[in-house]
Amino acid sequence: MDFQPSQEHEIFRKAVAHFAQGELAKHVKPMEASDTFPVEVFRSLGQMGFLGAHFPEELGGAGADFTSFCIFIEEVGRVSAAIAVNVLLHTLMGAAPIFLVGTEAQKREHFVPAIRGEKIVAAGLTEPNVGSSAADIETTAKRVDGGWRITGSKMFTSNGPYCDLITLVASTDRAKRHKGISLFLVDSKAAGVTLGPNIPRLGIAGAETGSLTFEDVLVPESALLGEEGKGFYYLMEALNATRAALAAGCVGLAQAAFDHALCYAKSRTQFGQPIGKFQGISFKLADMATEIELARLFTYKVAWMLEQKEKVTKEAAMAKLFASEMATRVAHRALQIHGGYGFSKEFPLERYYRDARIFEIFQGTSEINRVIIAGQLGL
Known about the structure:
4-stranded mixed β-sheet, Butyryl-CoA Dehydrogenase, subunit A, domain 3, 10 strands, Butyryl-Coa Dehydrogenase, subunit A, domain 1, 12 helices, 4-stranded antiparallel β-sheet, Butyryl-CoA Dehydrogenase, subunit A, domain 2, alpha+beta, 3 domains
């Protein structure tokens, strides 16, 4: 076993960190103030080759591996969890299914511009009445002459308020439940499509998310992505990679919170010495450092497994579960170490605290991930 990152990975990490800290960091305060996403970020990340780090160069990617994409998300997450989340979901839930099962025409028309940051893709999955149970989705697609008629609605769709394209999950046969689910590529400007406004949230301010409404939307036969009735399986494959990358984002957020806490513990003096010298603080920092390292190592193991085409249903759920709950614990302790300053807007600790909470909810709640893990254990 070799746990040393390659020279290429280290070079890539430095490049991403430099870009994130120099170019993305300037968007954090405006995003917090306005709760709007700087859509030009997609174009800049696409031009740098970051959006498609693990996709072929001829399709707009960088030709690297999935570990590189996780490194990208980790470093972006250190600067802004909000940017990391919407960029990650654009690539892995919105665009990746097109790469996996799309036709050459679909890849040229939709995937290539998405990876270049020229077209923003939202993934329409969650609905007002349906969350974790994807087999129960109510949005339907009915065959008509020349294509499909889509009716339904989606909720909490990241990138939804400003997307150009929707990778939509719809039922083509509700009686078959998960075996009757299909994926469709829907132009956000198509007649009958309504993009709802941004939904205010506790955290990840600026990572706009909204509702989508489809009122008798007519799409051509070519809008079907992959085979009819196979959408659920495509979705599960995309979710495994997404959960691994989200775990990397959690590591980045936790690392940022820890770095601030460690620096503060060394510089803040009380009772004649730095507060880091007190066991109550030093033990917190020791636990935080340990959990971050464990989450990072396991996340990159899952990334490696994905590169080897191994089954990762259990491991991806484990990585997302542990890393998300770890990020919440680390953010909580980091804020506590800062005391009153941590609770103030003067320091970024309260932002880390708010942002961390969502990672235990979306793309598989902690409870659902435990169900998945238990099922994989034969329980």
